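Input.
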Amino acid sequence: MSFHAWSIFALFWVVFVTTPGPNAVNCINNGMNLGMRRAMVGVLAILTQATLFLLLSALGITALIAASPMAFTAAKLIGAGFLIFLGLRGIWRAGTPVRVEERPARSVYLHALAIATINPKSVAGYLAAFSQFVQPDVPIWNQMLVIVPTALTLTALSYTGFTALGAGLGRAALGAVFNVWVRRIMGLCFIIYGVLLGSATTPARG
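Output.
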């Protein structure tokens, strides 16, 4: 991959991972409720998903799934239901005082991994990256040696930042009403993402 192609890809990925979505909302929520150290397990889960999606994209599996109306519809509905459930639960529990929870690391990890995996933004982003930035005349695995470290580094920096933002909000001397409304807004974000996912149009076949 040329430096020019890499710089364009890096810029795309910065925009991709810093645009708020379900992962960002979950990182902020984890930071508020778990504290920075415990919440970083969620970032690890996102990096796991990113690594998997990068490899699947290189093999063409993600594109194959997205091209199948039946598989896309099933994933879309499952993902929509899960996100809406998280949003409704977040709004319902918004009045509960924010506190550091003693959730097992495994629970935090699996929860974040599930959100990252069903995130429609992820599928769209990885497909865009591999359809626009991978050079067909260069061996794919040679390009992956550049793409993977770049993507994972930028992803880690972005979601660590979102987690730190949540941890900062959790530690700040905020009024109870403000905390409630922040958590309600985050819950509403999950519901909006779920509705958008559920109403997304099935990709057309080429």
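Confidence is low (pLDDT under 50) at residues 173-177, 202-206.
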